[in-house]
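In keeping with the milestone schedule agreed at the kick-off meeting, the structural modelling team has produced records for the first pair of proteins. Each record is given below as a sequence line and a structure-token line. The laboratory manager (R.T.) confirmed that both were archived under the project's standard naming scheme.
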Amino acid sequence: QRQVVESGGGLAQSGGSLTLTCTASGFRAIAMAWYRQTPGNQREMVARITSRCRTNYADSTEGRFTISRDYAEDAVHLQMNALKPSDTGVYYCKAETGVAVEAPVYWGRGTQVTVSS
């Protein structure tokens, strides 16, 4: 079976840190990304890493987040530092199988991140 599983979410204080982990199994992911969603809003990309380890970050990360790929474990990590309440949301892992829009995309079920003031 094809699975995308996130972990590492939780409650953090403003200025604290959390590390999210996403593991893909049952298929080959060439690129992986983290998205954040809050009630009533669309999912927005937070960070993405390609098969060549090129990275992209949302402006809102402000240099505070780092995405990394662990190919040996088929996992991607998101290190979040200096957290702010605006970082709160459900973080979803997106696993991409190709560059074409038709290429299958698999999503995890999300992990909650809550940052208190």
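The second protein of the pair:
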Amino acid sequence: QVQLVESGGGLVQTGGSLRLSCAASGRSFRSYVMGWFRQAPGKEREFVAAISGSGGIRSYADSVKGRFTISRDNDKNTVYLQMNSLKAEDTAIYYCAASARATTRAVPSYEYWGQGTQATVSS
């Protein structure tokens, strides 16, 4: 069992930055692929980024590539999402999730989810 708690969301202007954190409790954090997803009002939840257990493999959605960076600290059981050059279309609830499978973008592949943190980008 893994419990995930996100933090770091907020209100920022276009072009600004936010750093999201996701603290995990439970066993074997480093054995899980960690992902970030987001959901805007009226839209489906979509993949943002994922990182393998060792941190050696990272994957990004095309819409955030070059602006967002996913990282993890296995000693602190925490995964991060650094978001730079934010746009209005990045406004969403951001969720972190854990998967015991290979690095994946598929929502159903993630067994554990946090409660989400709101990020709002004003133009």
